[in-house]
Design goal:
about 325 residues, about 30% helix, disordered N terminus, alpha+beta, globular, 10 helices, six-stranded mixed beta sheet, Metallo-beta-lactamase, Chain A
């Protein structure tokens, strides 16, 4: 009997040891690396207006191949000063403005046009607390696919109650089949993307272009900034003496184009006009101290400019929990 008890106690001790070792093994097991992040959305107030920056994701751009009017060595040097390597992971941003009476989306992301690293705007719109059915109007800076692709889901309108607005020159250029037919082969897909994204709204009577500088609703104005595309537009948002200017594709590389505003990009339809617009907008923003935001600045892409010699310093928005 005594031997039996000793054997039982020994077995219990061994079982306990294995249990202890098992727990120890579990406690020290390495957690798998997830290798993902979710910027999603960022919110701030501009007077009485609520501004929500929405991330559509990121794309890699090889700046040495794309930037123009600058030697390649200087591109690499500018990137290195910001601890960046080429290609650069570039944000694709859109902005949702709640005026209190209207919900306005400015640009709509890439949809399915640029692969799996973008096309996240709809999910982040919903994560921010809004639904696509609530959007009243959508203002487009220009009709490149990374700004209009998210207007549709397949061949269906993604924002069923929204009116889409853009400069008449933009629509006349990118929605023209004759322009597409005469365009270089590599440019035809840009026309195709614009048509696929905008034409469903045209067919539904929901595309309403404007001409140049236009007051679109109280507190929101379209300002012609042609050059990057024929009808490229920036949007001025104002509430209670506070101002935010949404630049669209006025620029693509903070590391290079803030210190050197004359640097252009191959995406420009008219690079000389685009550079002139950029210089004018930079100077005004630095002088007057208002908020600016751009589609391809690091998310959320909102901040201020400060003059620094012949160039500018970018001062990103201080993070706020918006209490």
């Amino acid at each position: 009997m005594k031997a039996h008890l000793l054997l039982r106690d020994a077995a219990s001790a061994v079982a306990g040891l294995f249990l202890l070792l098992g727990y120890t093994s579990i406690a020290t097991a390495a957690a798998p690396q997830l290798k993902t992040s979710a910027p999603g959305y960022y919110r701030m107030m501009l007077g009485d207006f609520e501004v929500t920056a929405l991330s559509d994701g990121t794309v890699d751009l090889k700046m040495a191949d794309l930037l123009t009017n600058i030697p390649t060595a200087r591109i690499h040097s500018a990137l290195a000063r910001q601890h960046l390597k080429d290609p650069v992971e570039v944000s694709v941003n859109a902005y949702l403005i709640n005026t209190g009476s209207k919900l306005v989306l400015i640009d709509a992301g890439a949809g399915t046009f640029f692969g799996p690293t973008v096309g996240k705007l709809m999910a982040n719109l919903k994560a921010s607390g809004y639904q696509p059915e609530q959007v009243d109007e959508i203002y487009i800076t220009h009709m490149h696919a990374d700004h209009v692709g998210g207007l549709v889901a397949g061949n269906q309108i993604a924002f069923p109650n929204a009116i889409v607005r853009a400069d008449q020159r933009e629509g006349d250029f990118w929605l023209s089949k004759s322009n597409m037919d005469t365009a270089p082969k590599e440019a035809k897909q840009v026309f195709e993307g614009a048509m696929a994204s905008i034409n469903p709204y045209v067919a539904a009577g929901k595309f309403k272009p404007f001409n140049g500088n236009t007051d679109l609703m109280p507190g929101i104005k379209a300002v012609a900034a042609r050059g990057h595309t024929p009808g490229h537009t920036v949007y001025l948002i104002e509430s209670k003496d506070q101002r935010l200017v949404l630049w669209g594709d006025l620029m693509h590389s903070a590391a290079v184009q803030f210190p050197e505003p004359s640097v252009t990009i191959k995406f420009d339809t008219d690079s000389k006009a685009a550079a002139a617009q950029r210089k004018a907008q930079y100077a005004d923003a630095a002088k007057r101290g208002y908020w600016v935001a751009a589609a391809h600045l690091p998310f959320p892409g909102i901040g201020h400019l400060r003059a620094d010699g012949k160039g500018y310093d970018w001062i990103p928005a201080n993070y706020t929990a918006l209490r």
